[in-house]
Amino acid sequence: MEQSGTSTLLQGAVQDLASGVVSALRGGDHAHVPPDGADGEAASLTLAAVRVVGADTLLPEILLHTPPDPVRLAVFRKAVEAFPPGPDAAPTVRWSHWAMARTLRTLDPSVPQGPAAHPDADWLDGADWRLLTHQLAVLAPLALPGEDCAVARAAAHRPVDVARGFVRAVRRRDWRQAAGAGRWLTLLPGVPDTLGLASGLDFVELMGGQDPVVSLHVQAARLARTAGVPV
Question: Where are the domains of the chain?
Answer without folding.
Answer: 1-119, 120-231
